């Protein structure tokens, strides 16, 4: 049995969407995996954008790292993914729908978005009797593994019910500065312009612009929408696979906290606090998420973390 991890932290330095705590989240989780869960350094891959000597968290590099994580796994292995960065929530681009009514995406440093459908396809490739846990400290992260059962949360779409995003407003209290990890469509366009050097990107042609910028490295769903590849019918594999701990619901934003010279994600920080409090004993996925929810509510954060997995995995040990 081998324990392997991919840790992704994106601060987007020098852009209007700059965050402060995402790379710190990854560093803390890296130490936790080694010290508490027995991961070997050689089996942990980090992608961060604050050190050019490291693997950069572009869309292509993230897809490759996740593919290699799953492709190198064998039955009995333990796989773990941590993502801290921006999240976006887009209406579906094909006639197909998902169980939240939107496409939840993570946002690489080059704006080459990765959709919940892609995450689902990666999870489906995990070998039998091999676990994969994903922690996503990003906005709209509920339901990021498409079609996975919702154990804790209320992101699943209610028929005919429109849902408005509940954002964390910028807030300063007692020396703590909190911003959300969500990108508005206009900010995403501005950052894509900055990344590609193209000035003609607008809301009506953003997906065409992604295809032009990234070609075959663009999201398969974007390629389908623009006719670059044939549309394929999506068939969800074993829904028992995959465990997602989300920083918030699909219609919520997650906090990026700056205080006393430190910066971190509110969700990532709460996970570390609960794990420290339970040092010396095992904690289930459900216990961890409920503990984090209670802590964030006590600290007056409006975001509500979620748990998405099978019934049996809800009661399984976190990173078992």
TrEMBL record:
Domain Peptidase C14 caspase, residue spans: 3-312
SUPFAM superfamilies in the cross-refs: Caspase-like
BP terms from Gene Ontology: proteolysis
Gene Ontology MF terms: cysteine-type endopeptidase activity
Top-level division of the source organism's lineage: Eukaryota
InterPro entries linked to this entry: Caspase-like_dom_sf, Metacaspase, Pept_C14_caspase
Single GO cellular component term: cytoplasm
Similarity remark: Belongs to the peptidase C14B family.
Protein name: Peptidase C14 caspase domain-containing protein
Protein species of origin: Brassica carinata
């Amino acid at each position: 049995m081998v324990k392997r991890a991919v840790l992704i932290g994106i601060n987007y330095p020098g852009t209007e969407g700059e965050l402060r705590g995402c790379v710190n989240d990854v560093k803390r989780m890296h130490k936790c995996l080694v010290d508490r869960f027995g991961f070997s350094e050689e089996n942990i891959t980090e992608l961060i954008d604050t050190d050019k000597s490291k693997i950069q968290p572009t869309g292509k590099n993230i897809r490759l790292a996740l593919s290699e994580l799953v492709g190198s796994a064998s039955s009995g292995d333990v796989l773990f993914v941590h993502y801290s960065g921006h999240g976006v929530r887009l209406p579906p681009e094909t006639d197909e729908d998902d169980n939240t009514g939107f496409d939840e995406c993570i946002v690489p440093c080059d704006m080459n978005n990765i959709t919940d459908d892609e995450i689902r396809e990666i999870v489906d490739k995990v070998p039998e009797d091999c676990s994969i846990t994903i922690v996503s400290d990003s906005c709209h992260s509920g339901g990021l593994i498409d079609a996975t059962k919702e154990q804790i949360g209320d992101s699943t779409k209610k028929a005919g019910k429109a849902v408005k995003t509940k954002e964390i407003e910028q807030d300063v209290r007692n020396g703590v500065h909190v911003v959300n990890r969500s990108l508005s469509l206009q900010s995403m366009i501005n950052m894509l312009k900055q990344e590609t050097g193209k000035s003609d990107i607008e809301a009506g042609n953003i997906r065409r612009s992604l295809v032009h910028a990234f070609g075959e490295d663009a999201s398969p769903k974007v390629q389908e929408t623009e006719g670059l590849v044939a549309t394929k019918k999506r068939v969800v594999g074993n829904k028992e696979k995959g465990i997602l701990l989300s920083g918030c619901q699909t219609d919520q934003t997650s906090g990026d906290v700056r205080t006393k010279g430190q910066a971190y994600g509110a969700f990532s920080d709460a996970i570390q606090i609960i794990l420290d409090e339970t040092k010396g004993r095992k904690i289930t996925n459900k216990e961890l998420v409920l503990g984090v929810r209670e802590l964030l509510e006590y600290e007056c954060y409006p975001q509500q973390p979620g748990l998405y997995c099978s019934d049996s995995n809800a009661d399984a040990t976190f990173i078992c």
